[in-house]
Write a structure and sequence with these properties.
- The protein contains twelve helices and nine strands.
- By secondary structure, the chain is α/β, with parallel strands linked by helices.
- It has one domain: Luciferase-like domain (TIM Barrel, Alpha-Beta Barrel).
- Strands 1-2-3-4-5-6-7-9 form an eight-stranded parallel β-barrel, surrounded by eight helices.
Length: 348
């Protein structure tokens, strides 16, 4: 496997590839079907604008998020596009048997060779009751994640030792190569593991900003060259909202902060509209929470967002930025991604 399928070549004047993390957000007044149609249109437009890849996150039990089945959505997005890389950001591996994931992504890779990424996380992507229902067991230990990654890799490569209990089991379909595996994380655990395995690493800066630079430092210091990578490759997920004016960008970003507040209180729902956010009676404590949340969202007009993204890239040394735009309505979301692409010289 070469690094070409991991490293992107930025279009235009961008200093690093820009990519998209998609959650298939279901907003007030819309349905999951509306959300998934919007995801498909976003993938098509992202390809036109020059984004390097689009990944689908795995979440469960959240009315405002329709991305519970990444492999299914990835198949649909890849079929609706031609060149953009499509992948998982990520598959929450403890929720699944490694053989099942190997078969799913082996199938995707066979259907769309050279365009599929397999990002893996160790968090459940939901509450523990739902996680137990997914796993049919409460005995899954997140510390077994390294063993699960090794098992999945062996299934994809057909490389179990002869004395392994699974040595005669084949994950089919399997091709001569496989989708590149990424490790995802929001702490040092996966950062160190990705470095030791010589894998590309994606860090969730958009909800763990205080840990970004320590995790990337740990990844780089732990890195060992592998057949996949000769040197570290770090991607960070970034929350960003661009609009025609700074005031409108702030207005579009507020519902995302309200959505986070509701999730923190154990009351997730449909993604709120700007009108709902404007009418919400924030307490002083809630106002502080929203202010802190918005400080981690790069928002403003196109040039302001570009400056914020460029500063973040330079400060962290990230090789790639993956943008997630949590706003209400497909039109505002498309506009945000288009403005960011144009500000980076990615599209005519």
């Amino acid at each position: 496997m070469t690094t070409d399928i991991i490293r992107g070549v930025p279009r235009g004047t961008a200093d690093a590839p820009l990519s998209i993390l998609e959650l298939a957000t279901v907003g007030e007044g819309s349905t999951p079907a509306d959300s998934l149609r919007a995801s498909t249109e976003l993938a098509r437009r992202a390809e036109e604008w020059g984004y390097h890849r689009i990944w689908v996150a795995e979440h469960h039990g959240m009315p405002g998020v329709a991305s519970s089945s990444p492999a299914v959505i990835i198949a649909h997005l890849a079929a609706a596009t031609r060149t953009i890389r499509v992948g998982s950001g990520g598959v929450m591996l403890p929720n699944h048997a490694p053989l099942v994931v190997a078969e799913q992504f082996g199938t995707l890779h066979a259907l769309h060779p050279g365009r599929i990424d397999l990002g893996l996380g160790r968090a459940p992507g939901t509450d523990m009751a739902t996680a137990n229902a997914l796993r049919r067991s409460a005995d899954i230990d997140p510390n077994e994640f390294p063993q699960q990654v090794a098992e999945l890799t062996a299934f994809l490569d057909g490389a179990f030792p002869e004395d392994h209990p699974y040595a005669r089991i084949q994950a089919i379909p399997r091709t001569d190569d496989r989708p590149p595996i990424w490790l995802l994380g929001s702490s040092g655990f996966s950062a160190r593991l990705a470095g030791l395995l010589g894998l590309p690493f994606a860090f969730a800066h958009h909800f763990s900003a205080e840990n970004t630079e320590p995790a990337l430092d740990l990844y780089r210091s732990s890195f060992r060259p592998s057949e996949v990578l000769a040197e570290p490759y770090a991607l960070i997920g970034v929350a960003a909202v661009a609009a025609d004016t700074e005031a409108e960008a702030l207005r579009q970003a507020m519902p995302g902060a309200l959505s986070w507040l509701r999730m923190r209180r154990g009351k997730p729902g449909l993604f709120p509209s700007p009108e709902t956010a404007e009418a919400y009676p924030f307490t002083p404590m809630e106002t502080d929470f929203v202010r802190e949340r918005l400080s981690n969202v790069v928002h403003g007009d196109a040039e302001g967002v570009r400056a914020g993204l460029d500063e973040l890239r330079k400060r962290t040394g990230a090789d790639e930025l993956m943008i997630t735009t949590m706003v209400h309505g497909a039109e505002a979301r498309l506009r945000s991604y288009e403005l960011i692409a144009r500000a980076h010289g990615m599209t005519a």
